[in-house]
Amino acid sequence: MTTTLITGADKGLGHATARRLLAAGHTVHLGARDVEQGAEAIALTALLGPDGPTGGSIDLAGPIPW
């Protein structure tokens, strides 16, 4: 199984890519700058199945939080 991190997954191409990869059976982690929009994207893509995406706020220009 493939695991994918998609940045900018809260809208546009990132969101569409996340939906397609989830439908193909991938494990997907969504990243978004805007926490609220990211949560909405997770809720929408979670409708694709029980193994929906995980996600959170991500700013690749800043320090890595882990």
Account of the 3D structure:
The protein has 2 helices and 3 strands, in the order E-H-E-H-E. The chain has a 3-stranded parallel sheet with strand order 1-2-3. By secondary structure, it is an alpha/beta fold.
| Overall pLDDT | 75
Total domain units: 1
Count the strands?
3
In terms of per-residue confidence, which ranges show pLDDT below 50 for 5 or more consecutive residues? none
* Structural Rg: 11 Å
Shape: globular
Q: Tell me about the biggest sheet?
A: 3 strands, parallel
β-strand amount: 15-25%
Helix content: 25-40%
State the main characteristics:
three-stranded parallel sheet, alpha/beta, 3 strands, 66 residues, 23% strand
Question: Strands, helices and their partners?
Answer:
Elements lengths: L2 E5 L4 H12 L3 E6 L2 H12 L7 E4 L9
Parallel strand pairs: 1-2, 2-3
